[in-house]
Design brief:
Helix content: 25-40%
Largest sheet: 7 strands, parallel
Radius of gyration: 51 Å
Distance between the termini: 135 Å
Strand content: 15-25%
Structural class: alpha/beta
Strand order of the largest sheet: 3-5-2-1-8-9-10
Shape: elongated
Length: about 1000
């Protein structure tokens, strides 16, 4: 069965992995990781996201749709077309929309789950062994395809754990990488074109027919999480075990596939089938095989999708360069050497997928034929069971990403640029060498007399029974000494006696001419039957059986039977013959020269050609039916009357793509169709000299015809010369056009980069505007007057509050601050102080007062940038008027309170100042010591009375109270006072604050002690 090709077989799940527990701001860098963590294949999905122009908005929408309360359990790698000389701010922008850690990739960085990684500018990026590797771009600016490059490496490293997302952008970057990921069993998701700013990349990916989901960016995260939960969650292994056991369900799926597609997958390798079915179950969020069978029965489109998944593969031009180098240098030269000049070389490429490998072989054959300067007929048969792949191969149109696989000289020679540089089309000279057809290599008859069969990585998906059928089939299809090319994981197995090994490592074999010593086996035991598979299977009522494609023979015979004619030909509009029915030798004969495609205009005999050309022109112009009767056609020296009919054939363009087609009907004319001569119609007798007159007339006509023929030949030569000149001019114009196309591609790529940069700058401007508004509102809301000055003391900015202190208006911005009149009283050193702060970097703080009576704390600070560069100063004015008023009020209240307390307390109290003079005494002091305020207030404590308080120890204690804010209690003094006699007193003292502007005070409390017989060691007896 023809299957699409792959670079390698799908491997089993890779073991290992890491599950880090990092902080939200910890860097994730491969250089900083322990050796045990390096080189470990990730056991979580890796999502590659590619975007170009318009991708910034798509990124924001994508990450805004991520869940805010849970981790996705996968890693995201963003690849965008970036200008090489512009520092991207994409990392900072993405951080706003996701709770995950976001990093700009550094070389060798280890990929962790629940993290986002962003490609840096001017780098290509690849994924290998769980790390991101950065490379210098190999292609010039304008020709780089970084998304394809990363997707391919991700597919080769992660296989079925690779997921790709294609977002907004122009061109086709990402399509080839998407094919690679799908070939490895990964998942592909594309932004819906209607939600994009630029839909080139999404439409190119959708046109591949391999996209699993087509969603808006905001819808993608939820679908990704659901897919990952089914495909890689804890229950996936259980599902795999159940699937292996449930053989009946698997057989039912085979029945559905065979009934709807006509292809049998029962002999395919079970591991391949199981992986593909598991993937479809994950995409549809189905848990068990039984439920999937039921879903497939009810949804014919799902059966078709499974069929496409089973065929999904990837191929590219000149895949495995070493193999094609050997083909170019050894195998193909040997094939040509064995062929005589003008011989036919036939090549078969089964499982050709979208045709890249078949075209690669055609290019090698064309180059070899040109180098030998020989004309061989080159035929390449490319087949596959996938009709969509064959249709794509027939068109010969490929994304621009093929430039990475094809040398520039071959790309310029064999391809033309189309679709504004986003695609390449194979040259017509190469396309005409290939014949593409839908074929099941197991069921349908093979081609024969082949010189080379290239069947790479087809049999790796088949069981041993199928492989044992294919190898002998290839043997009988090859010419003696023909070559067989297999994939690196394939071999001829038990049929080594049929082939000679030419390149063992590259799997190139040569067919043996004879089988000596081996019993010959009938060819029929290897060739597949010409009938269809088995008995017809029952179809569900809502499923229509596929119609059989009509052959060219059936179509031609059907049209001829309607006309009941014996001879005819089915042709294209160009005259190329597709099918001949009946004996046409009386009307057509092969033309002299090189035999190529048979053309009815070249084969038409004398007398038929001009009328046939005229009739075809009328039919192609829109006339449904043209009939010409009585044409005299020269056949073997005689003239045969012929009737010509040309008509258009209506066919289904899906069934027969070579439309429109025309039917040319040729038949000998009956007597009634011949024009009657005037002589036969008249009754006059024939004159004797009539024959001589006729001969003279014929001779004159022949001479006239010869002159016209010579004139036409001369004219034709002139036209040919002119045509050659026009062709030369056309080649020059084509070369110029190719150069312009290249320049256009580069400009388009640069335009995409500029679009990305512009989007980033627009976001940056919006952020700066928002930050500026926030700062203005913050400064205005604080009520603090602020003035910013530069290094030349010129005003840069000020707040509205500052205009109340300094006479500032908007037009003062840019003027020196010394030119502005201030409203400050007694302060005129603003310029001097500001310059001093900038010179010394020492902040300055001063209390100032405005003419309006407001008090301010003025602070002057250096203006530092983020790079710690001094670029001026910041002058702030903080209004402290209310603070000073409240402070004065509080001091006054404290004073009154103290006075009230002092007056109320019954024990004697003294309030002393810093010089130990009495500031105040209460009434208890005056009454106890029988003194008056006049003799007390304002006096030194030591001079009161008879100097009874002049005690050195007391002096020391009071000094400690003032200097060290000390406190002393129960200091005992025994003294004979003049007015009251002996008394024992206990003194207590502490510091209190005075009114605003005054120094601290001491509160001294005096308590009389009546027990004269129990004095402790602190008692001091003074005086007599």
């Amino acid at each position: 069965m023809g299957s699409r090709k792959k670079n390698k077989a799908i491997s089993a799940d890779s073991p290992g992995g890491v599950n880090p527990s990092k902080g939200p701001n910890d860097p994730v860098n491969g250089a900083a990781m322990p050796e045990a963590d390096k080189g470990i294949t990730a056991d979580f999905p890796i999502v590659g996201i590619g975007a170009s122009a318009g991708g910034l908005a798509a990124f924001e929408s994508f990450f805004s749709g991520m869940p805010v309360d849970e981790d996705p359990g996968m890693a995201f790698v963003l690849v965008q077309h970036l200008a090489p000389d512009h520092k991207s701010i994409l990392t900072d922008l993405i951080k706003r929309y996701t709770r995950m850690q976001v990093f700009e990739v550094e070389d060798g960085m280890v990929v962790r789950p629940n993290c986002t990684y962003i490609i840096p500018p001017n780098r290509d990026m690849a994924f290998i062994d769980g790390t991101l590797q950065l490379l210098e771009p190999s292609l010039p600016r304008g020709q780089r395809l970084p998304i394809d490059f990363f997707f391919r490496s991700l597919a080769q490293d992660q296989h079925e754990r690779a997921i790709c997302v294609v977002l907004s952008g122009t061109g086709s970057d990402g399509t080839l990488g998407l094919r690679a990921i799908k070939s490895e069993g990964g998942m592909a998701m594309v932004q819906s074109p209607e939600s994009t700013e630029y839909n080139g990349m999404p439409r190119s990916a959708i046109a591949s027919g391999l996209v699993d989901f087509e969603l808006s960016p905001a819808e993608m995260p939820a679908q990704l999480i659901r897919y990952a939960a089914h495909a890689f969650g804890a229950s996936s292994k259980v599902h795999a075990t159940q699937q292996q056991k449930n053989e009946n369900a698997l057989k039912k799926i085979f029945i559905l596939l065979r009934a709807q597609t006509g292809h049998d997958f029962t002999l395919y390798k079970p591991s391949t089938i199981n992986r593909r079915i598991e993937r479809r179950m994950a995409l549809n969020q189905i848990d068990t095989m039984e439920r999937y069978v039921k879903h497939a029965q009810q949804t014919p489109a799902e059966v078709e999708s499974l069929f496409r998944d089973l065929l999904i593969g990837v191929t590219n031009f000149f895949r495995d360069p070493e193999v094609f180098k050997v083909l170019e240098e050894k195998t193909i030269p040997q094939i040509f050497a064995d062929k005589p000049a003008g011989g036919t070389i036939r090549v078969w490429s089964p499982g050709c997928a979208s045709g890249e490998e078949a075209y690669s072989l055609a290019i090698l054959l064309a180059e070899r034929q040109e180098s030998l300067k020989q004309n061989h007929k080159l035929q390449i048969f490319a087949t596959d069971i996938d009709s969509q792949a064959i249709t794509a191969a027939r068109s010969g149109l490929y994304p621009a990403g093929i430039a990475a696989d094809i040398p520039p000289e071959r790309l310029a020679r064999f391809f033309t640029v189309e679709d504004n540089g986003s695609a390449y089309r194979i040259h017509k000279s190469i396309r005409d060498m290939l014949i593409f057809s839908e074929q099941d290599v197991i069921r349908d008859p093979p081609f024969s007399k082949l010189d080379l069969i290239s069947c790479r990585n087809l049999m790796i998906y088949m069981g041993s029974d199928l492989q044992k059928k294919l190898i002998p089939l290839f043997y009988y299809a090859l010419n003696p000494d023909g070559y067989l090319l297999l994939g690196t994981s394939e071999s001829v197995g038990d049929f080594g006696h049929l082939f000679t090994v030419q390149e063992r490592r590259l799997k190139i074999y040569q067919r043996k001419k004879t089988l000596q010593g081996v019993s010959k086996v009938a060819l029929g035991s290897f060739l597949p039957p010409l009938t269809s598979l088995g008995a017809a299977l029952p179809h569900s009522s809502n499923r229509i059986a596929p119609q059989k494609k009509p052959t060219l023979r059936e179509l031609t015979e059907h049209a001829l039977l309607k006309q009941l004619i014996p001879a005819g030909a089915l042709v294209k509009g160009s005259g190329d013959i597709l099918y001949i029915h009946g004996r046409t030798s009386l009307f057509l004969e092969p033309a002299m020269g090189e035999v190529g495609v048979y053309n009815i205009f070249k084969m038409a005999r004398e007398g038929l050609q001009s009328e046939l050309t005229s009739a075809m022109q009328k039919v192609t112009a829109g006339v449904e039916f043209v009939r010409s009767t009585g044409l005299m056609v020269k056949t073997n020296g005689t003239l045969t009357p012929v009737n010509l009919i040309v008509r258009r054939v209506e066919v289904d363009p899906v069934a027969i793509p070579e439309t429109p087609l025309y039917l040319v009907i040729l038949e000998e004319a009956a007597a009634c169709d011949l024009p009657s001569s005037p002589q036969e119609d008249s009754n006059s007798p024939v004159l004797p000299h009539a024959d001589s007159d006729v001969d003279m007339r014929v001779a004159a006509l022949q001479q006239e015809l010869q002159v016209k023929e010579e004139y036409l030949q001369t004219t034709n030569e002139e036209l040919k010369s002119t045509n050659e000149e026009m062709q030369s001019v056309n080649e020059e114009l084509q070369s110029t056009n190719e150069e312009l196309e290249t320049s256009k591609e580069e400009l388009q790529s640069i335009n995409e980069e500029l679009t990305t940069v512009n989007a980033e700058l627009q976001n940056k401007v919006a952020d700066l505007t928002r930050a500026n508004n926030d700062m203005n509102n913050l400064l205005a809301g604080t009520g603090i007057g602020t003035v910013f000055v530069d290094y030349q003391l010129r005003i840069l900015r000020f707040t509205p509050t500052a205009t109340k202190i300094i006479n500032l208006i908007v037009s003062d911005i840019g003027r020196p601050v010394g030119h502005i009149v201030s409203n400050l009283i007694g302060y005129d050193s603003l310029v001097k102080d500001t310059q001093s702060v900038m010179d010394t970097l020492v902040p300055k703080e001063v209390e100032v007062q405005s003419q309006a009576g407001r008090c301010y704390t003025m602070r002057i600070l250096p203006y530092r940038t983020l790079e710690n560069v001094i670029e001026g100063a910041v002058i702030t004015f903080t209004d402290i008027t209310e603070y000073k008023q409240i402070k004065a009020t509080l001091h006054k209240a404290h004073t009154h309170l103290a006075e009230a307390v002092v007056a109320t307390v019954r024990e004697p109290l003294l309030v002393l100042d810093a010089d130990l003079r009495v500031v105040q005494a209460n009434s208890a002091f005056y009454s106890t010591f029988q003194v008056t305020p006049d003799t007390t207030q304002g006096q030194l404590l030591y001079e009161l009375g008879n100097r009874q308080w002049d005690i050195p120890a007391l002096h020391t204690l009071l000094d400690d109270v003032l200097t060290r804010n000390a406190v002393f209690n129960d200091f005992t003094v025994t003294h004979q006072f003049e007015t009251i006699g002996w008394r024992t007193l206990r003194l207590n003292a502490r510091r209190i604050f005075g009114e605003s502007g005054r120094s601290e005070l001491i509160l001294l409390a005096i308590e009389e002690h009546y027990d004269h017989n129990s004095q402790d060691h602190n008692d001091i007896k003074t005086g007599d």
